[in-house]
Amino acid sequence: MHNITMNMPPMVQTFNPDELFTRRCIWVNGPVIVGAGPSGLAVAACLKEQSVPFIVLERENCIASLWQKRTYDRLKLHLPKQFCQLPNFPFPLDFPEYPTKFQFIKYLESYASYFNITPQFNETVQSAKYDETFGLWRVKTIRKSHSGNCSNEFEYICRWMVVATGENAEKVVPEFEGLQEFDGHVMHACDYKSGLSYNGHKVLVVGCGNSGMEVSLDLCNHHASPLMVVRSSVHVLPREVFGKSIFELAVKLMKHFPLKVVDKILLILARLILGNVEKYGLKRPSEGPLELKNTTGKTPVLDIGALKKIRSGKIKVVPGIKKFTRGKVELVDGRVLQIDSVILATGYRSNVPSWLKENDFFSNDGIPKNPFPNGWKGSVGLYAVGFTRRGLSGASLDAISVSHDIAKSWKEETKLKKKAVASHHRRCMSHF
């Protein structure tokens, strides 16, 4: 036989279906999960356990893109691993109590492989809207083709939608007067990897949360001179108390005492172990660390060595910024300091309001309006995972709740469909 492909014109041989179809409509027999970070993977795994089909949409080219692409190299989990594992899959026994960034990424990749979760990568959700006429969600996306020559549009139709993009989807970059005139290097902490290239530099770190503290510490360890901007009050707690995680201690205390009492205990322990941090420019908030976390989502800093550098003067604490000029920064106290670089450890925010249309489940800042533990379920088949402000443990609890709720509805609807098909079949047979 002749090989007919030998006589085909070149256009046929290089045919790429991605470039032919620019728009497709896809029915999903189950939920659409938006986001392939730990939250999205947790929901997907729990749905697998319930035998519910789904699709996971991810705008990046990998799972857990925040961890893989937007974290610094020295990062470790701030809490012991038993509080960070996802449902039905413990950490390996040989992992340390506080796994590194790279170990956690390996754990997540093993998680996705074990549960056979294969997200649709390079696909960005443009809009998601509930169609009241048909009682279905319409999720419109743009997918980059493998060749990169074009982008294709898709519309997914589904009964349930899970928002798993998380609280940290987009970086927050505040506006500062004169920053455009500053001729040094400026970056957000999400782009910072290591202090290796900052040897001998004066670096202004804007922000004093866990990222700001750890970036300052890393810069210090690489022989840079960090100046850390503390614009507001902050709680600094020891990561461990007498060899035990302070978070684990707080969890145990909460079983026996009211929140305000636990907060007082934590602050007494912090004062005994860390001393009076206010004399170094780290003023404590009037609310306790747990109360503040519950009401505002602001996480206390768990010290892993930065405070020692602050005491020694190797990390200098400075007040808020008034403006930048060429190679310099003017502070609110009138001082003008010469600096080489700026790192904005100014946090992240949710991006849900930019694509979820006409829905009152989320507030304007992209967080569910109902506080934990009731923020995982909205109306008309809408769910949220990873917005508890309680880290990975909160996301895991939400994932379990969401999967059980969807599985119940999905199984009921599947049973009704089978009955309807059987009834239709019987009617058809009766005509013969």
From TrEMBL:
BP GO annotations: auxin biosynthetic process
Keywords: Auxin biosynthesis, FAD, Flavoprotein, Monooxygenase, NADP, Oxidoreductase, Pyruvate
UniProt key word Transmembrane helix: no
Recorded catalytic activity of this chain's protein: indole-3-pyruvate + NADPH + O2 + H(+) = (indol-3-yl)acetate + CO2 + NADP(+) + H2O
Pathway the protein acts in: Plant hormone metabolism; auxin biosynthesis
EC number: 1.-.-.-
Co-factor requirement: FAD
SUPFAM superfamilies on file: FAD/NAD(P)-binding domain
First-tier enzyme category under EC: oxidoreductase
Recorded GO MF terms: flavin adenine dinucleotide binding; indole-3-pyruvate monooxygenase activity; N,N-dimethylaniline monooxygenase activity; NADP binding
InterPro entries named in the record: Auxin_biosynth/cation_transpt (IPR050982), FAD/NAD-bd_sf (IPR036188), Flavin_mOase-like (IPR020946)
Family: Belongs to the FMO family.
Listed name of the protein: Flavin-containing monooxygenase
